[in-house]
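pinging the channel bc i need a second pair of eyes. not urgent but kinda urgent?? the chain im working w is below, pasted from the shared doc
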Amino acid sequence: MKEKTEGARKIWNKYKYAALVALIGAGLLLWPGLGNGVSRPEREDQSAQTAGSGWDLQAVQREMEEILGAMDGVGQAKVMLTVDSDGERQLAQDTQLSYSGDTAAPEDYSRKSETVRLDGSGGDEAVVVRTTYPTYRGALVVCQGGGSAEVRLAVTGAVAALTGLPTDRVTVAKWQ
């Protein structure tokens, strides 16, 4: 018996720092709000609920107009984007299921779900499990430099890079 405890003590003395580092790392990964900047749900019985994405198409178009207008030769620009879907956010849910009777054949059951929220310095925030960004269908850019092939090519490339659209779905026209 004494040999076993001495062997365990030798192993502990050899690997105690590695075990401590691994334990701290696991604790940090499980701590909400840490680990890759993603808040993790604290309970395993959570499901996800779809909510509005909070994404603003007009704001994206205005920002693209500013960026494109700053490019050499473009001049003033107007941008119109069309979307197939506007994206979504899935929020973490804390779900509780209660039932009466036999577990194999319950007589009555109820389910209660509540959005998981974190109290932060900015106030109460819902925990976002997954964000899906918008899928664009096409883009039209009307700009003062749109008569130049070089400007059209540069604007088409910039819009394709920002939206993920293929270049055949981006049209650049000259401003009247």
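so The two ends are 93 Å apart (CA to CA). and Helices lie at 2-30, 57-69, 149-163. — does that match what u expected or am i reading it wrong
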